[in-house]
Amino acid sequence: MIQPAKRSIARRWLTTPMAVVVLGATLLIPATSVSAADPTDMVLEWNVNAINAIGNANGATPPGLGQAPPLSGLQLAIVHAAIYDAVNAIDGTHEPYLDPIHAPPGASEAAAAATAGHDVLVGLVPATLPQVTASLDTLYGISLGKIPDGQAKTDGIAVGAAAAAAMLANRVGDGRANTSRTFPIGTESGEWRPVPPLNANVFSWVGDVRPFALDRTSRLRTEGPPALDSAQYAIEFNEVKAIGAQTGSTRTAAQNELANFIVANPVVLTHRMFRELAVSKHLSTAEQARLFAMGTMSTADAFIACWDNKNFHHFWRPQTAIREAADDGNPATEPDAGWLSLFPTPGYPDSPSGYNCIAAAMMHSAIEFFGTDFVSFDLVGPTTRHYDRFTDYVRDAIDGRILTGFHFRHADVQAAWIGKKAAQWVAKHEFGAVG
Fold first, then answer.
1. What are phi and psi of 39, to 5 degrees?
2. 277 Cβ partners below 8 Å, 6+ apart?
3. How many CA atoms lie within 13 Å of 338's alpha carbon, on the beta-carbon side?
4. Contact 167, 81 (CB under 8 A)
5. Is the peptide bond before 4 cis (omega within 30 degrees of 0)?
6. Which structural domains are found in the chain, ordered by start?
7. Residues 6+ apart with CB under 8 A from 275
8. Does residue 215 contact residue 303 with C-beta atoms inside 8 Å?
9. What are the phi and psi torsion angles at 115 (to 5°)?
10. Distance between CA atoms of 15 and 79, rounded to whole angstroms?
11. Which long-range contacts (CB under 8 A, 24 or more apart) does 376-383 make?
12. Which of 84, 248, 287, 296 keeps 20 to 30 A from 168, CA to CA?
C-alpha cells in the first residue's frame, strides 16, 4: 500500500488552490531516448505541460506568456516537488522533500512522474475552469499510453498519486489565496507609487507566502536602496536615465537587443534551457526530477524573498524618480518630467528585481546541480543568445533590466544575490544524497 506523507506542516507551510490555468499549444521538447520498458523523458513532458497550463492563464497570449512569473514560479515548485518525491520514492537515492512514500520494487518512474504532475496541476485548477481539467486529463492519457501496461505502471501511478496528494495537502494555507493585498501608495520622495501608463498595483501578497525551503520569509532581506542624497544613488539614477529611456537613450544596437531579450518571460526561457540540458547531459528520470525540483523551489523561495523585500523597502521606480528628481534632495540628479522607461513599468516597487531573482535562482541551482558554472547553453527568446557559463546570463539580466528602464542597478544586483542564496539554501537543506 502507498503510504501518505506525514511530515509536519509546521515546517512545510502552503495554500489553498487558486491558480488560474488554461492550456495552450504544446511546447516542443527535445527528442530523447525511450527504453522499451519505461519512457525516460516524462519529467520533461510534464514540465512542458505545466508551463503551457500555468503560463496561459488568460487565454489571450501565446503559451507560456499569459501568467506573470511570480505566480507561475510558485505553482511550478508545487508541481516539481511532487514529481521529485514520486520519482525519488522509486529511485531512492536522495532524501525526500516531504515524508517518504513507500514504492513497490520495479514501479514505473515515468508513470509516477506523469501522475504526480497531472494530479497537482488538476488540484491547482479552479472549479470554474473544467475545460482545463479535461485538457490535462487528455494529456495524461497520452503520457500513460507511452508506458507498457502491467504492475510497474499500476504501482507508479499509485506512487505519483500519493506524492501529489501529499504535496497539495502540505501547501494548503500558505498565503497564495491572499491576493487582495496591494502595496501602499507612497507620496514622499523614494516611496513607490503606480507608474504610468499601466498604473498597476499587483502581487504584494507574494511576499507573505510561506517559503518552500527557507526557514523564514525575511531570511534573504537585503540592505535595500542607497540614500537618496548619496553619490551612489546619483550614479545609479543617471545610469538608468541615460540608457533606460524610451526616447533619447544612449543605448547601442547591442544594448537594444539585450533589452528586448530581457523582457521575454524568464520562466519559459530557463525551463526550456533546463530541458535541453537534461537531454544533452543524458540525465536519468531521477536526475531530471531533482534538477527541476531544485530549480523551481529555488525560484519560488527567491520570489517570496524578493517580494518580502519589495514590501519592506517600498522604493520608487526610475520613471517616478526621474520625473520627481527636483524633490529628492540630491543636487546631482536632474528631473525630466516626461521621461518614460523603454517598456511600460510593472506594477510593483523597484527593489529588488523580480526578473533577476528568478534568473539567478535558476542559474545557481544549475551550478549546484552540475557542480560547475562552466556549462554551455542557449537561451531562446526574441533572439537566441549563447552562454558558456550560467552566471553570464545573470550578468546579462542585471544589465538588461537597467536597459529596459525598470530598475536601478542596486535592485538588480541585490536580486541576483537573493537568487544565488536561495539556490544555495535549497541545495544545502533539501534533496541531499542518501548515505
1. -60, 145
2. 283, 291, 366, 375, 377
3. 3
4. yes
5. no
6. 42-170 (1.20.144.10), 204-208+211-429 (1.10.606.20)
7. 29, 30, 44, 47, 48
8. no
9. -70, -45
10. 13
11. 377/273, 377/276, 377/277, 378/273, 378/276, 379/261, 379/269, 379/270, 379/272, 379/273, 380/269, 380/272, 380/273, 381/261, 381/264, 381/269, 382/260, 382/261, 382/264, 383/257, 383/260, 383/261
12. 287
Q: What separation, in Å, do the N-terminal and C-terminal C-alpha atoms of the chain show?
A: 26
Per-residue b or e along 371-383, where b marks 16 or more CB atoms closer than 10 Å to that residue's CB: eeeebebebebee
pTM: 0.90
372 vs 324: CA distance, rounded Å:
45
**Contact at 8 Å (CB) between 65 and 265?**
yes
> DSSP letters of 133-153?
HHHHHHHHHHHHHTS--SHHH
96 prior amide bond cis, ω within 30: no
Burial class (CB in 10 A: 0-12, 13-18, 19+), 10: exposed
| pLDDT tens for each residue of the chain, 435 residues long | 333 333 333 222 222 233 333 333 333 333 333 334 799 999 999 999 999 888 654 333 333 323 577 888 999 999 999 999 999 999 999 999 999 999 999 999 999 999 999 999 999 887 777 888 899 999 999 999 999 999 999 999 999 999 999 999 999 999 988 888 999 999 999 999 999 999 999 999 999 999 999 999 999 999 999 999 999 999 999 999 999 999 999 999 999 999 999 999 999 999 999 999 999 999 999 999 999 999 999 999 999 999 999 999 999 999 999 999 999 999 999 999 999 999 999 999 999 999 999 999 999 999 999 999 999 999 999 999 999 999 999 999 999 999 999 999 999 999 999 999 999 999 999 999 998
Instruction: Give the three-class secondary structure for 297.
Output: helix
In whole angstroms, give the CA distance from residue 23 to residue 296.
20
Q: Which grid cell is 285? A: 528520470
| Whole-number Å distance between alpha carbons of 214 and 33 | 36
